[in-house]
Amino acid sequence: MAILRFQALKETLNRKPVKIDETDRRSELFGRNVFNETVMRQFLTKEAYQSVKDATLKGTKISRGVADHISTGMKEWAISKGVTHYTHWFQPLTGATAEKHDAFFETIGDGLAIEKFGGTQLVQQEPDASSFPHGGIRNTFEARGYTAWDPTSPAFIYGTTLCIPTVYVSYTGEALDFKTPLLRALQSVDSAATAVCKYFDKNVTKVIATLGWEQEYFLIDSALYASRPDLQLSGRTLLGHSPAKGQQLDDHYFGSIPSRALAYMRDLEIECMLLGIPVKTRHNEVAPNQFELAPIFEEANLAVDHNSLLMDVMDRVGERHNFKVLFHEKPFAGINGSGKHNNWSLSTDTGINLLSPGSTPMKNLQFLAFFVNTIKAVHDHEELLRATIASASNDHRLGANEAPPAIISAFIGTQLTEVLNELEKVTDGKLSPQEKTDLKLNVVGKIPEILLDNTDRNRTSPFAFTGNKFEFRAVGSTANCANPMTVLNTIVAKQLKEFKKSVDALVKDKKMKKDDAIFNVLRDYIKKSKKIRFEGDGYGEAWQQEAKKRGLSNNKTTPLALRAKVSKQTIDLYKEMKVMNKREVEARYEIELEDYSMRIQIEGRILGDIARNHVIPTAIRYQNVLIENVRGLKEIFEKDFKKHSKEQIGIIEAISGHIEHINADINKMVDARKKANIIEDAEKRAVAYCDEVKPFFEEIRYHCDKLELLVDDETWPLTKYRELLFTR
Ligand code: ADP
Ligand code: MG
């Protein structure tokens, strides 16, 4: 094993950047492998094309007959590009994407064969997927789940396979994937937001949610990765002493990108272009070997698919460059973790970004309505938002000593805070003409189109307004964006529905003018949601105290946070907005608890193994060297030997002490694990793993890391932090 570490280092140091040839312009590459507008016009009949467009824009059904035409067109296009197989591409609750490839090839008797892909195969499939998690919804004896075509996300070619984005549902129509609830949430925010838009512009007939994610990740050489069993099996290092130099100097952030990483990024970007993923920015992140990739934002469902696809593509391109991509939220203790900011907004079919201040008071009133409603939604459902980003790996960011904290709050900047403070003073009831003019001219009318606060926005806020969108920054780097997007769009939909009801009631019952009613309702919302707004530093003890006083939740661990997912409020919310029924909600809760316990269990096992099989034997071997040395000194110096061996004896004792602690803690951890394993109830088991098993990780690690500092570097088997983070 010790040899593996040095072999890996040698291999890494000898690597050269892979040469990337970019002959075509990126704009020409863009979407080349996507069944997009241009291709559809070319390969589909007019009727079939229109049918796909209507399905995308209006949600209309595609008839079987037309599906046959579409599948034929898709097949012809795919075969013309060398494709041999097709697959339904979906996102089961494992967190990865799933596919099962079938050949177009079919025999027709008499030793003859054809390429076939019919409407039925396009529209529906039954993958034998009995081992995907389903939280009891789809018991194997009950029925099989099936995948169904999602025409709103275009088919694409990856390698030699035609991939068709699909939902994955049980025979009773219950969601078994991430996409189904997302599509339902997007539909509900569409209808709620469109109804509110009608106050301001009758021409709006559709509102879409937009998402621009920012993916953070680490790149580690594949040989170094292979030398660390903890990274390999759990995605993070479970031990390792922090290096003398980490990220203190901030010299990596936005610095020049190392050449091997740059080659990787260019290769990756070309793949993204072909797949129609509009990646635009790349840069170094705070930690050494940490990077970020961000696209131009898109319609949320498509953006979610693109992020899932991207993570897969990142892995595969990594292989060509001898890189392993680390998506884990905290691969290295003491070093910056990785997130996936979800930039979110709402946009009308008339081309208006509803969270972008406009040029007229009327447009700004519309902006304020959506802005304030979003804050109110976050206020009312802060625990659910926290729950949606909870995972064993994200616990190392949220709730640990890293911003953003586990407390959900919204940052809006000083300019908009002032506007809301003014609006809070609006008269109760009908507004005088003068007050209204004054509001329109001096408050609403004064919101600048470009908000200066964007630049110095608060980096520690989990949910920040950044000029023309909200940025949900607490999402973890491994997460499927569908989860946070489902929650955010559902709570905003619910809030907008309430808003409409209240405004309409004031207009009808109190005979108020529409504007007066809007001002009145917004004023109430601003007052009621005040405690969720926080402009200060979210990092640290002061905010924890303050948040507690305000009555905000601070669920530091996943088992605690997840509970909000099955609260009565959540179940009612999902039911009312037709996003999920109780069974679907509870199934997901169970899956996530299970996932949590399993991950902690796996980490515990790995840590125990490494400590016992790698660390302790190495420490003993080194201790023997020292003992041998002391024995020699005694032989030479006789009575005086102590004077010359003080240091060695000290280390011998220290090593024994650490070994003793490690052994004792591993034994205790194994006992705690055994106790946790026999707990039947998934929630209680997760809590036991969190409170009884996990605390030993830190203890064991502490003593292992001390040994790393004591033992001869030549014999240490595990590649060290310095080497993992700084070898390029
Ligand atoms: P950063 O947050 O790193 O400073 P930007 O503010 O430029 O970066 O934008 C980050 C992300 O926000 C990008 O992916 C961009 O596409 C996305 N974004 C910009 N406008 C919107 C919008 N209206 N809706 C959703 N995402 C958006
Ligand atoms: Mg950002």
Count of individual helical segments: 25
Question: Which molecules are bound in this entry?
Answer: adenosine-5'-diphosphate, magnesium ion
Class from secondary-structure proportions: alpha+beta
At CATH level 2, the architecture of the largest domain is: 2-Layer Sandwich
What is CATH's topology name of the largest domain?
Answer: Creatine Kinase, Chain A, domain 2
Low confidence ranges: none
Total strand segments: 17
Distance between the termini: 21 Å
- Mean pLDDT, to the nearest integer, reads 92
Structural domain tally? 3
User: What is the H level of CATH, i.e. the homologous superfamily of the largest domain?
Assistant: Glutamine synthetase/guanido kinase, catalytic domain
**Assigned CATH class of the largest domain:** Alpha Beta
The amount of helix comes to 40-55%
CA radius of gyration: 29 Å
Overall form? globular
Into which percentage range does the β-strand content fall?
5-15%
Family: Belongs to the glutamine synthetase family.
Organism: Gillisia hiemivivida
Domain GS beta-grasp: 84-173
Domain GS catalytic: 178-615
List keywords for this structure.
single chain, Ubiquitin-like (UB roll), Four Helix Bundle (Hemerythrin (Met), subunit A), 3 domains, binds adenosine-5'-diphosphate, binds magnesium ion, Gln_synth_gly_rich_site
Can you summarize this structure?
By secondary structure, the chain is α+β, with helices and mostly antiparallel strands. It folds into three domains: 31-176, Roll (Ubiquitin-like (UB roll)), CATH 3.10.20.70; 186-580, Glutamine synthetase/guanido kinase, catalytic domain (Creatine Kinase, Chain A, domain 2); 595-725, Four Helix Bundle (Hemerythrin (Met), subunit A) (Up-down Bundle). The two termini are 21 Å apart.
